[in-house]
Amino acid sequence: MIEEQATVIKCEDQYVWVQTQRQSTCGHCSVKNGCGTQLLSKVLGNKIARVRCLNTRNSNSGDDSFLLKSGDKVVIGLQESALLNGSLLIYFLPLVIMILLGGLSVFAARIWWPEGTDLLSIVASFTGLFIGLYLARRFSQTDTQGKDGHQYQYEPVILKKLPASEWACQIKQTQDLSA
């Protein structure tokens, strides 16, 4: 499971909006001056991301120590398989459909309209891309549903609430690394 620390911004029924800050480990290895990743991290900076997470440990669990409120520090997680499957769905499916339709259009254009091969292949490729994106959206929405009808596969979940002492300790460690 891929885990990240976050701060709770807003609580809803089954969901919690959290805020994470992208961390960069650049500058801590031996090739820091010759690495392109360090340059990108300097340009892009530490961006803040807001994410909606499923709160599987809501007030129905009976555990009052896990009731979340704005400002709480939590650990969120996402299954590695969800990241891999989601990446394939979003990037690979539209690309494959785009290439297939573009190739089929070139073959068809050579038979029926030899002068318009380029135009037809461009139009068919863009059409294939949009069809692939539409199918990726459909598959991601209907892939897996929980017992209550909500989608869970591609959603991060709240794993645990961090005590204030643990969060302060982790912030100090991060500041020591950056110094």
Outline of this structure?
The protein is α+β, with helices and mostly antiparallel strands and 179 residues long. It has helices spanning 36-44, 80-112, 117-142, 164-178, and strands at 2-11, 15-21, 48-54, 73-78, 157-162.
Descriptive report:
The chain has 179 residues and is α+β, with helices and mostly antiparallel strands. The chain has helices at 36-44, 80-112, 117-142, 164-178, and strands at residues 2-11, 15-21, 48-54, 73-78, 157-162. Strands 3-2-1-4-5 form a five-stranded antiparallel β-sheet. It is elongated.
Q: Classify the beta-strand content into a percent band.
A: 15-25%
Number of separate strands: 5
End-to-end C-alpha gap: 29 Å
The percentage helix is 40-55%
Keywords:
4 helices, 5-stranded antiparallel sheet, OB fold (Dihydrolipoamide Acetyltransferase, E2P), 2 domains, 179 residues, elongated, alpha+beta
